Amino acid sequence: MKTLKISTFILLAACFVQASRTSPDPTTFVASTPCDMIPRTMLSIPANADCEFIKWNLALRRDPRNQNPTFYKLSYTYGMTQPGTTGFRNGGTSLTKEGNWISRKDATNKETYQLNSNTPETSLSFARLDDNLLHLLDPQGRLMVGHAGWSYTLNRK
Amino acid sequence: MKPTLSFLLLGFFFTLANSIHAQEARLANVPSKSNSRKPIASGPLVVGVFAGRFPCSEIAKDWKYPERPECTKVKWAITFFQDSVTHQPTTYHLLGTLNRQAAREGKWSIVKGTKTEPEAIVYQLDPDKPDVSVYLLKGDDNVLFILDQQRKMRVGDDYLSYTLNRIVN
Q1: E strands along B14-162, which residues?
Q2: Do A150 and B53 touch (CB under 8 A)?
Q3: Does the distance separating the beta carbons of B156 and A147 come in below 8 Å?
């Protein structure tokens, strides 16, 4: 009986620790961006796909004990505009990416968030503009240039 | 600004605004080409032309326009002019959907500092009228971010951001 109580306590404690690591809400950034070839490659969108714009929903999680970056989940939808709306014709095509992310600062103290840093071909990097804004970077680390319709800035939800 | 040039720029902008969805996917990270049949301003007097769309309500409030629920987005195209010899800022020309009747024009200058970055480069439209100045943070040569009146970053939504992008012929 005593062994059962101890086992139950350990199990509950483990569940509590696990829950406390993942329970804080992630910081979420959203945007609609152009569908140029660079983001197509990063997001595995076929080069010949009908794609006018991409809707992004990026959830970034941190370890609540030390605020270090942990996991991300990127949900995105691409396709053609449904005229007169902010959505997609036939709902678009929705995909997700998940993995680890890291944060690093350069010599000028500018902070960059990098998703999937160990797989360069599908890695995504963002300049952290402030607490509420990220901006997609190209593979050379330059700000992605949007057009007159959409930009590559992600906004905190 | 001569009336003829204003008319040409106005025509360009509204052609541009109606052709947003006709943008082709670019292979590289370069400014997009204008879809206007009329060329946009260029040459030694022009620093650049920047365009974008962003949510309406904040800017309408700043410009003291009456609140209109149907105003969901604003389109801007700003042409920055410079002295061809000294490269110092001279005038700007702002065409937008909030001011369809007449382009907003005036002087612009380069100042330093946002609310959080004292060394950031900021373009200030109408520095001689600070209560109606527009502040734009220079991200790089091709990207500008629209700041609020306290020079803080503005946060957009899941469809539009407060960002302007360079466009070229």
Answers
A1: 32-33, 46-55, 73-82, 89-96, 104-112, 121-125, 134-138, 143-146
A2: yes
A3: no
Domain membership of residue B58 as a residue range: 3-168
Tens digits of per-residue pLDDT, A32-68? Answer: 999 999 999 999 999 999 999 999 999 999 999 999 9
State pLDDT tens for residues B85-138.
999 999 999 999 988 888 999 999 999 999 999 999 999 999 999 888 999 999
Are B95 and B76 a contacting pair, CB within 8 Å? yes
A37 and B31 in contact by Cβ < 8 A?
Answer: no
Regarding pTM above 0.90, the answer is no
ipTM: 0.87
Q: For residue A136, how far is the Cα from the chain centroid?
A: 11
* Contact predicate B111/B127, CB 8 Å: yes
Q: In angstroms, how far is CA A109 from the centroid of its own chain?
A: 22
Interface test with B, best of A81, A142, A150, A154 (most B CBs within 10 A): A150
Whether B51 and chain A come into contact, CB under 8 Å, resolves to yes
Domain CATH number, residue B118: 2.40.128.640
The answer to whether residue B161 neighbours chain A at the CB level (below 8 Å) is: yes
